[in-house]
Amino acid sequence: MNTVERWKQEKHPLDVLDDVREYAAEGLSFADIEERAGDGEWERLKWAGLYAHGNHRGYFMLRTKVPGGRLTPEQARVIGEVATEYATAPPEHGGSDQNPVWGDAYLDITTRQDVQMHWIRIEDLPEIWDRYDEVGLTTVQGCGDSARNVLGCPAAGLDHHECFDAQPVVDAVSDFFTGNREYANLPRKFKLTITGCRHDCAQSQINDLGLVPARSVVDGEDFYGFHVRVGGGLSDGPRMASDLDVFVRPEDVVEFCRAVAQTFKELGDRHNRGVCRMRYLVQQLGPETFEQAVRDRCTVDLPGRGTDLTEGYRGDHVGVHTQKDDSLRYVGFNVVAGRIGGEEFAAAARAAQAYGTEDATVRLATDQNFLVSHIPEDRVDDLLAEPFAADYQPDPGPFSRGAVGCTGSEFCNYGIIETKLRIRRWAKALDEQVVVPDDVDVVRLHLSGCSASCAQPQIADVGFRGETVKIDRGGEGDDIVEGVDFGLGGSLGSDNEFLDWVETAVPADAVVPALEQLLQAFVTDREAGERFYQWCRRVGNDRLRQVMQRADANVSGGVAHGD
Fold it and tell me: Which helix (H) or strand (E) holds 62?
């Protein structure tokens, strides 16, 4: 049993919720907490949605779960106000000047439709949680070895491309697992996605468990329901999910998900943390054996597959879109790298309430953007004229539109390089310097600060994985700089593939020049309707390297530091 498993045996992780209130009431320091509860408490605090800032001792990142990404305007306003009041850097860490673009008091929208805040102090958590309780928000199991935030299509119930609105199912599954002590100690994190969308906006191919829309005749009756994909994931062992021969009725989804969690709980590896994720279990057993193990533990009938209704992958809701009710619009705002000021997010919530109908919502998307729903057509211009919208307009350039960045070394214990500022700078530079064909509305640039893949680089047109790079300066010795592994050609959907890491140890200042060369070649060489990732696959890695090396930059002159 590994060290984390031993810590979880010493005290149930959900007990840490009461401990946090006690630590806050007594005003305990980090050293006091360690002395009282031991090193394992930092791991158990993840079940409260807390990660300790390794490079800012005394402060936390707080993760708020948003099932399916759906917020009421009131919930979104509270999140923005909490960020404004509590996510503030202390003077010794720069105060409001600690970040040259965002200052402080901001929040990050994540690729899992969560909200993350930084600079949170433990003494403020009881007040934050009380305010959350009033509007139905939670941070419970935002992190840790349990069911994480359940993903869904951010346009569920709004868009013409869905078969049915799966948000009620998302909510039911989230409600079942949140605070459930029986399933709060799994071998590793358990990531679920449930959608009735034809375009797989919730990324079932890279989740532990994905439910996608299907239709089947059961006992002579025609049903909408779900097909099942299992064992997807990224990080150091990327794997596309496998299909099971299962059709799940909506009313049976909670029990089915419980059975999958039970299977993982019983059979998952609790020894080597590097191979504890469910995808390794599916790989080890094989999809058929894994399916039988789930069936053995499930109390509802699970007929075989019917007709799959998924048509591809969209993953983008930026822009102004007509809802099912033709008189209404939803507006997708572009938030580069997912970072937005707390005051601006609260203002967006108030604008949703002011200009929308009583059904208005704020939705978080897996590409780190957000949308506002139920806006009458004649109020859209008023919404877009609001001050908060100035930096988040729904008609961005293709690179800003597709820019995704993880937390990076600014706050993350594992981050090797800074990410948020860097991907924003790269995207804006490319939007200014590169002209792509009119039918190319997005080029996805995903930057992860380490190999953990929180920014999902493997499924991007262009993916980056941070590392330190050694550059030979000749007689002047070596320089150690921030750099990336540079990957091309990833996508989800019917032609899904993980990208190839075409060039490694590229100094960060060589990235934009290399991309300019690649994009110029793409514009010249592309076939009709060809997307950038498709062009990268067609021309091959050798040609891509040759094109990159035309840049007036040290694209291939570095090696990974330590090699």
Answer: strand 60-64
The pair of structure tokens assigned to 543 is 């040609």
| Tokens, residue 435 | 């002209």
pLDDT for 119 equals 97
Q: What are phi and psi of 545, to 5 degrees?
A: -65, -45
Neighbours of 548 (CB within 10 A): 25
On whether the CB atoms of residues 409 and 418 are closer than 8 A, the answer is yes
Per residue, the 3-state secondary structure of 395-425, as one string, reads: CCCHHHHCEEECCHHHCCCCCCCCCHHHHHH
Backbone dihedral angles phi then psi of residue 85, each to the nearest 5 degrees: -85, -35
Residue 175 CB partners (closer than 8 Å, separation 6+): none
**What is the torsion angle, in degrees rounded to the nearest 10, for the CA atoms of residue 166, residue 172, residue 178 and residue 182?**
-120
Provide the percentage of residues in the chain whose pLDDT is more than 90: 93
List residues bridging with 500 in a β-sheet: 488
Considering only CA atoms, which of 193, 150, 111 is closest in space to residue 367? 111
- Integer-rounded Cα radius of gyration of the chain: 23
440 forms bridges with which residues in the sheet?
none
Q: Tokens 């032609």 map to which residue?
A: 495
Dump pLDDT digits (tens) for 62-96: 999 999 999 999 999 999 999 999 999 999 999 99
Given a contact cutoff of 8 angstroms between Cβ atoms, the answer to whether 60 and 16 are in contact is: no
**376, 357 Cβ separation under 8 angstroms:** yes
Cα angle at 489 between 487 and 494, to 5 degrees?
A: 140
CB-neighbour burial class of residue 390 (10 A; exposed 0-12, middle 13-18, buried 19+): exposed
Q: How far is CA 561 from the centre of its chain?
A: 28
Whose tokens are 């099932």? That residue is: 67
**In this structure, what token pair is assigned to residue 7?**
């810590």
CA distances from 126 to 136, 302, 453, 466, 516 (A): 15, 43, 32, 36, 49
Positive or negative, the CA dihedral 485, 491, 492, 495 is negative
Is residue 530 pLDDT above 90, yes or no?
A: yes
- Per the confidence metrics, is the pTM higher than 0.70? yes
Tokens (6 digits) for 337: 């790298």
Query: In this structure, are residues 380 and 386 in contact, taking their beta carbons and an 8 Å threshold?
Result: no
Residue 500's φ and ψ, nearest 5 degrees, are -100, 140
Classify 275 as helix, strand or coil. Answer: helix
Confirm if 328 and 376 have CB atoms less than 8 A apart: yes
What phi, psi does 179 have (nearest 5°)? 80, 5
Confidence of residue 475 (pLDDT cuts 50, 70, 90): low
- C-alpha 323: how far from chain center: 25
The count of other CB atoms within 10 Å of the CB of residue 497 is: 15
- Is residue 476 scored above 80 in pLDDT? no
474, two tokens: 């000749």
Question: Where does residue 151 rank: exposed (0-12), middle (13-18), buried (19+ CB within 10 A)?
Answer: buried
